[in-house]
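Colleagues,

For the teaching module next term, I've prepared a clean inverse folding example: a structure given as tokens, and then the sequence designed for it. I'd like students to try predicting residues themselves before seeing the answer, so please don't circulate the second half yet.
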């Protein structure tokens, strides 16, 4: 099925097909079937939720790192129990999704027994969309925090040099009718939005980015030569530093601008994560918690709307609706993206996506 959207041809691909393709690709690069399936699931989950910037289009950059020898497709993270409720994971330079999944599974296990589980991860890689890690806890009936650091893309507030990662802060809780899943990058806008404006010849708001000289700019071309700006000025900058304190400083991973970028072939990423799982019925009964989450949901979405707004959403709800729609109709990939993925597949003898 193909449709025309602003001169780009899109092809809707069933999620299962995209997942199987991604799995074959990672297997071709030496990952075990289980790990290949984990990374494939992580990427397709992002495409399903509409976080297209972190979907299967990341495959070429992930496998390039394996080819360059700066990411190990075979590595198995090593978990060390520090206290009954705390563990440390040495990611051993495995795929970030594999490390984060292992860490969250351990955190959930500890929380089941003791009410809380906390895992610090070092020597990991980019784990894509944080909501995928959050969902793992929510599916197990747990609340969670999911922090990560990332390669430098933003200045600290007042600066102009790339120092802080656009490191998402994420958390979740089971809820009705939908869980609470907040997953947000601390920049004003995603870099992908600047690329889109550039392609379309549009200007951007002057608070999204600085140009190469450290000046605010409305020109997306100049913005792409400069740095992203943190959301809320010093507050977004502070959140990005918070991700680095908890994920980088604490874990033993790279920090303070030291995480290698996904396109830097010179060294491993050395990303850090910080993961906490929490039982929701620690202080009240499970029924009380559920009823209170439902009340909160209703208060949020049934509130008075501002002018021009048709519906108020709970955090994560828009992505759930998009997922439902894409599970039904398939995930729209641009033909140029499919061509690129198929070229990558052909180079290692893997069957094309479509
Ligand atoms: N691993 C990494 O290093 C890395 C780095 C950057 C971004 N990311 C990922 O990129 C993704 C993009 O982040 P983002 O900040 O651009 O996301 P976003 O701005 O689209 O959404 C941020 C949050 O706001 C909520 N939201 C959005 N619109 C809403 C509305 N109208 N009403 C109520 N809630 C709403 C979303 O559910 C989400 O929880 C995230 O999944 C993040 O994990 C990952």
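(Answer key — instructors only)
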């Amino acid at each position: 099925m193909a449709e025309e959207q602003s001169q780009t041809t899109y092809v809707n691909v069933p999620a299962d097909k995209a997942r199987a393709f991604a799995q074959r690709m990672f297997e071709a690069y030496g990952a075990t079937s289980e790990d290949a399936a984990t990374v494939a699931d992580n990427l397709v989950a992002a495409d399903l939720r509409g976080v297209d910037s972190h979907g299967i289009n990341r495959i070429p950059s992930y496998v390039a790192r394996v080819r360059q020898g700066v990411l190990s497709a075979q590595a198995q993270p090593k978990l060390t129990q520090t206290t009954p409720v705390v563990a440390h994971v040495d990611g051993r330079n495995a795929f970030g999704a594999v490390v984060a999944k292992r860490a969250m599974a351990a955190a959930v296990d500890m929380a089941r027994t003791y009410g809380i589980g906390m895992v610090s991860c070092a020597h990991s890689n980019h784990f894509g969309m944080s909501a995928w890690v959050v969902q793992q806890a929510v599916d197990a009936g747990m609340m969670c925090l999911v922090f990560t650091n990332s390669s430098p893309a933003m200045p600290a507030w007042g600066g102009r040099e790339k120092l802080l990662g656009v490191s998402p802060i994420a958390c979740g809780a089971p809820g009705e009718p939908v869980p609470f899943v907040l997953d947000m990058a601390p920049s004003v806008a995603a870099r992908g939005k600047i690329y889109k404006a550039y392609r379309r010849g549009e200007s951007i708001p002057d608070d999204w980015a600085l140009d190469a000289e450290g000046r605010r700019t409305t020109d997306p071309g100049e913005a792409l030569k400069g740095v992203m700006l943190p959301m809320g000025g010093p507050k977004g900058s502070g959140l990005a530093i918070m991700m680095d304190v908890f994920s980088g400083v604490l874990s033993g991973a790279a920090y303070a601008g030291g995480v290698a970028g996904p396109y830097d072939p010179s060294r491993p990423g050395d990303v850090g994560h910080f993961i906490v799982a929490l039982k929701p019925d620690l202080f009240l009964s499970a029924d009380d918690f559920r009823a209170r989450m439902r009340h909160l949901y209703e208060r949020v979405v049934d509130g008075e709307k501002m002018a021009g707004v048709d519906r108020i959403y709970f955090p994560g709800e828009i992505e759930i609706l998009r997922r439902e729609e894409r599970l039904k109709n398939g995930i729209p990939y641009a033909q140029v993206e499919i061509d690129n993925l198929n070229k990558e597949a052909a180079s290692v003898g893997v069957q094309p996506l479509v």
